[in-house]
Amino acid sequence: MIIAIIIIAALIVAICFSAVLLFGAPYLPTLAPQVQAALKLADLKPNQSLIELGCGDGRVLIAAAEAGLSVTGYEINPILALIAWLRTRKYGGKVKVEWGNFWHKQWPETDAVFVFLLDKYMKRLDTLCIQNTSRPLKLVSFAFKVPDRKPVKVLNGVYLYVYR
Ligand SMILES: C[S@@+](CC[C@H](N)C(=O)[O-])C[C@H]1O[C@@H](n2cnc3c(N)ncnc32)[C@H](O)[C@@H]1O
User: Fold this and answer.
1) Which residue of 27, 58, 70, 161 pairs with 139 in a disulfide if CB–CB is 3.0 to 4.6 A?
2) Which domains, ranges and CATH numbers included, belong to the chain?
3) Is this model's pTM higher than 0.85 or not?
């Protein structure tokens, strides 16, 4: 009985982490130096806002909340969404974690977007950023560049783009 429960739990975890490949990048956490580089590049003031597309375990949300930012993270993997939600509860209304596919979400008005995705999603993201610019928007991307667009700055493998 216990073995059956363990096998079912392992299957659920495996499905949660592999099914994401149908919609976007697999889970790989951003390391602390790159999280700090991303926040430095975004250069936001306390009370400005940042959204993270695919927030993983919530580490970027936490660093941003510690810097006084209002943050929203979208995460499709229910296990990671739950972990991110639990880890960020202490920041109250400053941090919101939404479970679901960020391609199908209506983004709130925001000052910056952080992503760590894959090359093949960057063009689609570029189009979304162009459509969502009711105010200037900073796109901060770890590891992957936006095709045909020159980054404004690069730091530690993190790229900054500005949409006006
Ligand atoms: C490379 S990981 C980065 C995690 C986190 N941003 C970090 O930097 O530590 C990509 C994350 O995006 C999530 N993801 C991929 N496609 C998604 C989608 N369409 N909607 C929501 N989350 C997605 C994955 O589950 C994974 O947690």
Assistant:
1) 161
2) 2-163 (3.40.50.150)
3) yes
